[in-house]
Specification:
By secondary structure, the chain is mainly α. It has 11 helices and no strands. Helices cover 62% and strands 0% of the residues. Helix 8 packs antiparallel against helix 9.
């Protein structure tokens, strides 16, 4: 059922047809992009689960290029040198075991076969946690190139997680609590001047608040720019907005304030 749901929305992006959905747009835009790049023309109706795709080139939106790719990266993120589990546990066997579990987990294997948002969400969730842990490991050399890189990448992954599904808020909460703990620890460091503490605070505001919000807003800017044709989502928006959609009954009609 979910594949029918999100596959249809991928088609909407390819056809530039406006629609409304409860989830933010990033995951569905990536599904549509994968379909477009792999030669899918957006013509399959996705009317009900179980319909045969026949000659339609749907594999790009399924696991071959997108979902299977991002899930395979989860194992790499778990195992990569000084990666997430290796950084947290300092144990090579623990990192190996986690990568093995991810590779052979039935749920992950199943998710990688269909057109779903979950693999993309899982990628950004783990990416955010990995970036946070790597940034913490650079605490002894603040404001270095690696410190800025991992802090900024944490913000990018937070925007990605929130841009796929709102349950990404949980990783935002995790990173937020870690940041509060980190700042509280810095505030209690008597050898650190208030000016330096202010720099730490400003860096986190820029990378973990301003950057994610900017990227999150940019996703919707792309969403509304691409979907410029009338579709099933018109009725959720104002008459003034509908007048901007090609093919709508109100298109180019003068709408009084």
């Amino acid at each position: 059922w979910d594949e029918t749901h999100f596959g249809k929305m991928g088609s909407y992006y390819i056809n530039r047809t406006f629609f409304f959905d409860v989830h933010p747009p990033l995951g569905k835009m990536l599904i549509g992009l994968a379909g477009y790049l792999s030669g899918y023309d957006g013509t399959f109706p996705f009317q009900k689960p179980g319909d045969r795709y026949e000659q339609h080139n749907y594999m790009g939106m399924r696991g071959v290029r997108l979902c299977r790719l991002v899930l395979s990266w989860l194992a790499f993120l778990a195992f990569q040198y000084r990666g997430l589990l290796l950084e947290l546990s300092k144990s090579l066997p623990a990192a190996l075991l986690t990568a093995f579990i991810l590779i052979f987990d039935t749920g992950c294997i199943t998710l990688s076969q269909y057109i779903l948002l979950d693999p993309i969400l899982m990628f950004f969730l783990m990416g955010a946690v990995l970036s946070m842990v790597k940034c913490n490991s650079c605490a002894d050399r603040p404001f270095s190139a690696s410190w800025w890189f991992w802090l900024s990448l944490t913000g990018v992954n937070l925007a990605g997680a929130m841009g796929v599904k709102f349950v990404g808020l949980f990783v935002v909460l995790l990173v937020g609590l870690n940041t509060i703990y980190d700042l509280w620890d810095l505030l209690g460091n008597l050898s650190l001047s208030l000016v330096m503490f202010g720099k730490h605070l400003l860096a986190r505001v820029l990378c973990l608040i301003v950057l994610p919000l900017t990227l999150y807003t940019a996703m919707f800017a792309v969403h509304f720019t691409v979907l410029n044709k009338s579709g099933p989502g018109d009725g959720f928006f104002s008459s003034a907005f509908q007048s901007q959609l090609i093919g709508n009954n109100l298109h180019n009609v003068s709408i009084p304030e």
